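Re: that backbone. Tokens:
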């Protein structure tokens, strides 16, 4: 499946073309075909669920969207910019499954969120009032104001995820790529993360969220993509999460050495 063609644009707000526009993406790791002709278009202010079994290519797609992997074929535009341009402009934030943070590392939540402002500061990285205000707003948006002075290592997994989302908000990112935000968090934290995501969408930000939580997808996603090396289905959660399509995705999830060659 390929993406809807759209004229590149330089804007990053609502109504300025797709926030995420990828087409014809093929990625190989040696002999392993990880993504094949993948297309994805997500409009501004939308939450899109990225669904697929282990090994279906979700992390590879994230890495491609953020420019860490150069696809063999295909094209990615984020708000009309290449991944490198979008990253340099701070337009995109990637929240991986587990941040490599040493729990004993003495850094407060507020410091982590302030890191999102580094691109806005001079070489001395001395925060100005605008930086402090952006951090306060991001902490508020993610419900972390009361934990701002807590050590990052003293947070729960869900709170830590919110701290990294807050860093992206402070940075001014418009596109968020969230890799398994619910992994290892309890139901209460999951609800809080969903509230945060909805608020971000209401602010006009765009979220691509990989998840195994198929039951919850209809609750918080406007649209969904079912990935199994290729795009098997995309549309509303109701259109995508049909028993037949899920069976297809999970059936295709079994290794097929002949196809991987
Ligand atoms: N560095 C690598 N070298 C070789 N093969 C890789 C590499 N990274 C991923 N793969 C393979 O590419 C395919 C897609 O992997 P990817 O990590 O993108 O899947 P995923 O959907 O994110 O999986 P999970 O849900 O387990 O995180 C898999 O077959 C995987 O084994």
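Recovered sequence:
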């Amino acid at each position: 499946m390929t993406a809807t063609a759209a004229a590149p644009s330089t804007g990053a707000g609502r109504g300025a073309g797709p926030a995420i526009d990828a087409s014809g993406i093929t990625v190989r790791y040696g002999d392993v075909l990880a993504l094949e002709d993948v297309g994805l278009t997500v409009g501004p202010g939308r939450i899109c669920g990225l669904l697929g079994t282990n090994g279906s290519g979700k992390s590879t797609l994230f890495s491609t969207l953020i420019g860490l992997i150069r696809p063999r074929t295909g094209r990615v535009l984020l708000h009309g910019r290449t991944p490198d341009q979008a990253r340099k402009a701070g337009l995109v934030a990637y929240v991986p499954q587990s941040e490599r943070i040493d729990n004993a590392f003495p850094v407060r939540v507020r410091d982590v969120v302030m890191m999102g402002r580094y691109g806005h500061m001079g070489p001395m990285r001395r925060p100005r009032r605008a930086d402090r205000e952006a951090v306060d707003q991001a902490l508020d948006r993610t419900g972390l104001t009361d934990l701002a002075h807590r050590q990052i290592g003293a947070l729960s997994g869900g709170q830590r995820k919110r701290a990294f989302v807050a860093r992206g908000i402070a940075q001014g990112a418009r596109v968020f790529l969230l890799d398994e935000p619910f992994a290892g968090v309890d139901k209460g934290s999951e609800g809080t993360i969903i509230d945060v995501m909805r608020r971000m969408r209401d602010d006009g930000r765009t979220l691509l969220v990989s998840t195994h939580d198929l039951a919850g997808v209809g609750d918080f996603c406007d649209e969904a993509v079912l990935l199994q090396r290729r795009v098997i289905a995309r549309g509303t959660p109701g259109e995508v999460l049909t028993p037949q399509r899920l069976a297809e995705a999970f059936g295709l999830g079994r290794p097929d050495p002949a196809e991987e060659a």
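Residues 29, 32, 34, 52, 54-60 surround adenosine-5'-triphosphate (CB under 6 Å). The two ends are 21 Å apart (CA to CA).
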